[in-house]
Amino acid sequence: SYIQNDIVGISVLKRGEFTQALHKKKTGDLVGIRGPYGRGFDFQTSLNPCIIGGGIGMASLATVIGRLPDATIVQGARIASEIIYQKRFPKMKLCTDDGSIGFKGTTVDLLKELLKTQTFDKVYTCGPERMMYKVVEVCKNHGIDCAVSLERYMKCGFGVCGQCDCSGQRVCIEGPVFTSAELGRMEDFGKITILKTGERVMLYNH
To answer: Is the pTM of this model over 0.90?
Structure first.
């Protein structure tokens, strides 16, 4: 989750078989990487931005923070131990579901609190899709443009298989970053996802 000269850093949450194997790699081991794919963030139209990360989605926003160092940064997690990058970004506003660190509540709750005293012209967000859906709704009510990095299960990575489809938009090609205007035309956003088996399911069940 950083780029420094010819070094690329990637943050990986140990979860499944692949990420567990990756965590066992040692210095000097070879790792194959494809990408980047699709469309990234646009930084040209933001004067007073807010960056909102939920869970491991914060990793995708680390380089955004590097480009927008004066932005208001919000990170949310279930519990304190799941918060990342505290030393790297000490000015972050933190929130947890259980209140074990920072504001007690969700990133959406904290965003609503911030908007009582602050104004933003753009919000950049990445995290659980239901969280981002609610962030977009709050921003819509306040006339704030959003840039959303959508996470979907990907297989081919170049737009053929349709696994990452969201209302006809391929996250690996047209995304992963979508504007709030584009998301407004994507009926599946925040509601329906596609499992790795290809089955379409309601998002709140998964």
So the answer is: yes
